[in-house]
Amino acid sequence: MLPDADDLPELLLDLAVPHEDINELVTRRSRLTGDPGALRLLEECVEELFRDPEDTGRTPDLARHFDAAPAELSGIFGVYVFVAALPRTLARHRERGIPPEISRRTLADLGRQMAVHRRRHGSTGVHARRWLVRHFRGELFQLGRLQFERAHLGQRTAPVLAAAGVAAVPGTPCLNLHIPDFHGPLTPSACDRSLAWAREFFAVHFPEERPVAALCHSWLLDPQLKRYLPADSNIVRFQERFRTVRKDIEPSDTDPVQFVFGDPDLPVAGLPRRTAVERAVGDHLRAGGHWYIGRGWFPFPTGPASAA
Fold first, then answer.
1. Which of 28, 41, 108, 256 could covalently link to 281 via disulfide, CB atoms 3.0 to 4.6 Å apart?
2. Where is the N-acyltransferase N-terminal domain (predicted)?
3. DSSP calls for 42-66
């Protein structure tokens, strides 16, 4: 199920795994392959990952399986699961005619999440393991600056869209939009290219789904950011693409701290003020304010005509 030790480094590089993590993963491979119980657990994880593969929006929770890994593999067991799942993932992509370069850039999010873990903890590991299940199931794709996740409208969101004139009921296909880290500025031109690409991509490779809207749930959509950032800033211009679904009432202060500074547990008093976004996030919290997850949407018909 796993590639041999000689082939593993090349495969890890294809997944953008940080160079400083590769030797450890190759070395510990023998600990995994020499343990029949750990190998059975690996197989169970892969089977669970692909359970009900067409049931998008119901990502299997592998936390219990990951937590059952031997202690010396606990931080990296997820990497081996995703590596073992890779052949089935790529086969599913090929069945849909998805170009190899899109597969490669999408699945390289494994390396990105390992880089996030190393930035925060200084060791080999995987941040947001459940998040990566979406990529390897074929539910999420990176198309330029943005990531797009196949999903369905929920009970609270569908009525909002229907009231705006969209043919929407709970269960109607939609796309969840995500903004990956380590990918440069969120410029309007880069977003425009991603959105145009997505319209064509999903019409060609998932023609039966016909998503009606793109949704985004992110601290980047908190309207309070407009108090601190110029009207022509990338973040404000990104916000202006969206209509509001609803407003959260529970603060989510650690989200911007995590994404802007790399660690959600950093003391607010010492947050740097080097950039406009750093000053916005830190100054607002130091003044006693809170940040909230913004929930937005915009119509997103797919196909060549809609991209014109």
1. 256
2. 6-138
3. HHHHHHHHTSSTT-TT-----HHHH
End-to-end CA distance of the chain: 45
E strand residue ranges, 190-282: 213-218, 243-247
How far apart, in whole angstroms, are the C-alpha atoms of residue 188 and residue 145? 10
Rounded Cα distance, 157 and 65, in Å: 32
List, as one string, the DSSP characters of 145-176: TEEEEEEE--TTHHHHHHHTT----TT-EEEE
Element (DSSP H or E) covering residue 259: helix 254-261
Chain centre to alpha carbon of residue 61: 15
What is d(CA 261, CA 246) in angstroms, rounded to the nearest whole number?
A: 27
3-class state of residue 243 by DSSP: strand
DSSP one-letter code for 143 = E
Instruction: Give the strand pairing for 294-299 and 173-178.
Output: unpaired
Taking only Cα atoms into account, the Rg of the chain, rounded to an integer number of angstroms, comes to 20
For residues 125 and 190, membership in a common domain is answered with no
Please tell me whether residues 61 and 122 are part of one structural domain.
Answer: yes
CA–CA separation, 101 vs 251, rounded Å? 38
Q: Is the dihedral of CA 201, 14, 39, 68 positive or negative?
A: negative
In order along its 308 residues, the chain shows pLDDT tens digits of 899 999 999 999 999 999 999 999 999 999 999 999 999 999 999 999 999 877 787 788 898 999 999 999 989 999 999 999 999 999 999 999 999 999 999 999 999 999 999 999 999 999 989 899 999 999 999 999 999 999 999 999 999 999 999 999 999 999 999 999 899 999 999 999 999 999 999 999 999 999 999 999 999 999 999 999 999 999 999 999 999 999 999 999 999 999 999 999 999 999 999 999 999 999 999 999 999 999 999 999 765 544 43
Q: How many CB atoms lie within 10 A of CB 149?
A: 18
